[in-house]
Specification:
7 strands
Length: 200
């Protein structure tokens, strides 16, 4: 069954890459329609741990300690023990699945997505990176559907990290030095719907 799943994922990925040569395969959700710019960090950056135990036996998956998951009033400051966070307090508003561009999206919004079992892909552009944003947008329809019949993926700009890309699930992260679609798909398949809340 695992081989069948891998063949299906490979076929989907190859189809998406072929379509990407002709244009986007998905209509990304744009927050402000602007070209992405390097957002300013709003506080100290905690480095991504480089030598913790792997999560679930996957070498690049980094286990991040649990920080709870309580709701706080929207706009209230939230301090996390680890940046980027992989759990913790969050606002009550839920982000729509899709791609966001422009300024950083506050952690208080996308941590709630993690709690609901979504995968969040963070990207950092030190200068405008429209090709990367386009490639991420092209992937929106490539991720396998969940048991709910949707694709629980949120892609947001985030400047408070030391790598250009990071996939995040509840209590797990996978930092990437470059765009790697197969690794993103595999991470999604391993961790989607693994948050504390089992909802669409």
């Amino acid at each position: 069954m695992r081989d069948k799943f891998r063949r299906r994922v490979c076929a989907i990925l190859l189809s998406a890459l072929a379509l990407a040569a002709c244009g986007p395969t998905a209509e990304p959700i744009i927050v402000d329609g602007s070209v992405p710019k390097a957002p300013a960090a709003t506080g100290p950056v905690a480095p991504v741990e480089t030598e913790p135990a792997s999560a679930g036996g996957f070498e690049r998956d980094v286990a991040i300690p649990e920080e709870g998951g309580g709701i706080v009033p929207e706009g209230e400051d939230i301090a996390y023990g680890h940046y980027p966070p992989a759990s913790g307090s969050h606002y009550s508003a839920v982000l729509q699945y899709g791609l966001y561009e422009g300024e950083d999206v506050h952690e208080g919004y996308w941590v709630y997505s993690l709690k609901r079992g979504a995968i969040v892909i963070l990207y950092k552009c030190d200068q405008p990176c429209p090709d990367l944003v386009q490639s991420l947008g092209d992937m929106l329809n490539v991720f396998p559907e969940t048991k709910w019949g949707n694709r629980k993926i949120v892609i947001v700009p985030y400047s408070r990290m030391d790598v250009p890309l990071m996939a995040v699930a509840w209590n797990v992260q996978m930092p990437l030095d470059q765009f790697d679609p197969q690794s993103l798909i595999d991470f999604y398949a391993r961790h989607v719907d693994q948050g504390p809340e089992d909802v669409p």
